[in-house]
Amino acid sequence: MKVLILGDSHSMYFSLNNELKQINESFRGVNIKVLSIPGSTILGFGKRSSTLNSRDFFIKELISFKPDFICFALGQVDIELGFFYRKVVKKEDLNIFDYVSMLIAAYLNSVENIQNEFGMPDSSICFKGINISVLTSSREKAVEYTSRIINENIEDSELKLKHHDDLAATYPSNLERYRNHMYFNEVLNGAVKNRYKYFDINDVIKCPNVLGVCRLEFIPSKKDHHLLDSLFMRELYIRRLLSTCLNLL
Question: Strands (DSSP E) along the chain, which ranges?
Fold first, then answer.
């Protein structure tokens, strides 16, 4: 069984090594190829020519790897960083609902174009929903990290500071950001239902006692918006992936 993953840096947890095959014997005989492209976005994937060339990279791997299943795992960068870049740096008058609608339409259009080009059946395609944010324990940490990323191509120090202050003044609460992430997944799941497959892992990583936050054991101590990398997390990712591909959920 061969599975090709296309995602941003959050898809690194799909990487399958020998230790994981020892932990879960069901993973033996499975070959997962992960195209984890840091900073990759839905809108960037839809372009035939982009800075990261994620579409061309994916097509080359699709042709050479010849997978049985393909999992698309994009959207985290768009929702958690791209949205704020557009609002704070580009000064776009944008709301999350219109933004998500635009993203999902572009996402499905890109996948359908590739599907038609290479004759991939609907049953071979699945989508992973985005994770709720790990930047929920400290608002200061969330603002600092987000500000650093959206400002990374800005050289003017005064402009960077202004963007930081604008972000800090308008940065949504944990509950609002939780709503944004869950809304993206809801729209994506609804759009692919009865055609493609869908899964996410938020039922495991969300705090059972406090709405809108991630469980403490999955939050890194450093300023980072990735889940804590562990054997537990990788086993969870891969188990959900394979169960979804094979209709075992």
Answer: 2-7, 31-36, 69-73, 125-128, 197-199
